[in-house]
């Protein structure tokens, strides 16, 4: 919110999804030389349920790494390109045994490429929205948010945080006018500001 306000936007928040933990059982990180998280929600569930501090932590981007830091954990590896593909490429040496803690239904690219075990720790569910608020541009931060926005009748214009969110949005008929170069909140805000500056008044 602060980043949007600093960029001259008057943000309106409309929750479209909620996060539901899938279990209260501890996440056993013993025996893994690296635990991987690809979202702030995954970071929170790991911190809440982990059996011990992981030997090493890998995060998909600075937003996820910042959430880990807020929870007293330090990411040993943060991808420069904030996608599963970018995170795979960021490993200088592939971990011998890795655990990917993510959302139910998450893409399998990372687990497949690294041979990582996958633990679905949470799911996202769509919330009922009686009417979407008026906005000049919508910022979509995840594929699930894009699907929920489309289900609520939204059509854009929208700025997407990354390629998977863009794909989900366009499948739902949303007009994606820009995609963040840096797949984090600041990149999303910067792309929205650039789109606003280039749009006819």
The level of helicity is 25-40%
Distance between the termini: 24 Å
CATH architecture of the largest domain: 3-Layer(aba) Sandwich
Q: Tally the helices: what do you get? A: 8
- Which segments are poorly predicted (pLDDT under 50) over 5 or more consecutive residues? none
Classify the fold: give the CATH topology of the largest domain: Rossmann fold
H/E element sequence: HEEHEHEHEHEEHEHEH
Major β-sheet profile: 6 strands, mixed
Q: What is the average of the pLDDT values?
A: 90
Strand order of the largest sheet: 1-6-5-2-3-4
What key phrases describe this protein's structure?
201 residues; Rossmann fold; globular; alpha/beta; six-stranded mixed beta sheet; 20% strand
What can you tell me about this protein's structure?
The protein has 201 residues and is of the alpha/beta class. It folds into 2 domains: 87 residues, no CATH class; 107 residues, Rossmann fold. Helix content is 34%, strand content 20%. It is built from 8 helices and 9 strands. Helix 6 links the parallel strand 7 and strand 8. The longest helix is centred in the last third of the chain and has 14 residues. It is globular. The relative contact order is 0.15. The model has no long low-confidence stretch (mean pLDDT 90).
Summarize the structure.
By secondary structure, the protein is an alpha/beta fold. The protein contains eight helices and nine strands.
């Amino acid at each position: 919110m602060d980043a949007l306000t600093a960029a001259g936007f008057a943000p309106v928040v409309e929750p479209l999804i909620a996060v539901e933990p899938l279990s209260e059982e501890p996440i056993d990180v013993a025996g893994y030389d690296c635990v991987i998280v690809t979202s702030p929600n995954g970071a929170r569930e790991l911190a809440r349920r982990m059996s011990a501090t992981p030997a090493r932590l890998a995060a998909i981007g600075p937003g996820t790494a910042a959430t880990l830091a807020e929870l007293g954990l330090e990411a040993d590896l943060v991808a420069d390109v904030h996608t599963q593909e970018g995170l795979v490429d960021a490993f200088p040496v592939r971990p011998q045994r890795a655990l990917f803690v993510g959302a139910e239904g998450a893409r399998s690219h990372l687990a497949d490429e690294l041979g990582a075990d996958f633990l679905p720790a949470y799911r996202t569910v769509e919330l009922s929205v009686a009417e979407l608020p008026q906005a000049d541009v919508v910022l979509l931060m995840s594929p699930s948010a894009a699907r929920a926005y489309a289900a609520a009748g939204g059509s854009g214009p929208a700025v997407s945080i990354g390629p998977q969110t863009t794909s989900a949005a366009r499948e739902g008929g949303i007009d994606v006018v820009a995609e963040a170069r840096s797949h984090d909140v600041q990149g999303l805000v910067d792309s929205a500001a650039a789109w606003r500056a280039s749009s006819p008044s």
